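Researcher: Structure prediction, please.
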Amino acid sequence: MPPNLDTPQAGVFALGTTSHAFLEFDLLAGVEPQALVSALASLREPRTTMGGVNLVVGFRPELWRDDLGAGAPQALSSFAEPVVGSEGFTMPATQHDAFLWLTGGEYDVVFDVARATIAILGAIAVVATEVSGWPYQHDRDLTGFIDGSENPSLAEAPEVALVAPGAPGAGGSVLLLQRWTHDATAWEALDTVRQEAVIGRTKPDSIELEDKPEGSHVARTDQDDFGKIFRRNMPYGTVTDHGTMFVGFAAQQRPLKRMLESMAGLGGTRDDLTRYTTPVTGAYYFVPSLSALGEYSAEDEA
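Model: Predicted structure follows.
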């Protein structure tokens, strides 16, 4: 039986995986957008996912909604312009056409599926970015702090992350993807008390500080102010060049955009964490529901 129209891609909520590959693609000149969508939609067939790899597929909003005429929130747009905040701090716009996130329990399987995918797309799209990720000390990022303390439970996450039933793009999700590189030397030069002031939480157990500074990361990204999101952040990189892949899902784009503007210091105080970690990419993608994606599967057309 085919999935309900609103059934989300399962990988959005597949917590606990230990190996990750983040791939962004750009459509080759002269290739129709539907060819890219069809190729990525077909990856969800059993022959490609038997190795225990979860797939999350997303597309540049205008490609999915405007070029294909598929359902998505009308207000959703690409990360087309950089976010420029106070003191010249800038979040770059590096929008691409499609996004594929592969996760699994073993990196060799993720690696093989990633290579197979690139081969399948060889005549359709080029790899624009590739990043490998892995968990650090269970649920901490590379600052040493627990990441995602305000995340909703898995029971609550669909309401936060998914477009509501009956709305255009129902069962899909708005994804903000950014790669942040850390200045480990500057960060580790701070003592724990100062680090906690920058984050706004205690380091051992992630308790929110009662007297957190206005510029703390917690204060600048308070979801009670901007709206709820579901974060699936992941550390990435090497010993000498590393940071955080920000992977944020939401039912609407607005809370994600408002948080970025707050962090950049637009109309207020700049997030102190941005003095120790720098965004180097920025893109929005629409992650369609399983059934919406399946409508473009080459298997379904056969």
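Model: Confidence is low (pLDDT under 50) at residues 45-50.
Researcher: Thanks, that helps.
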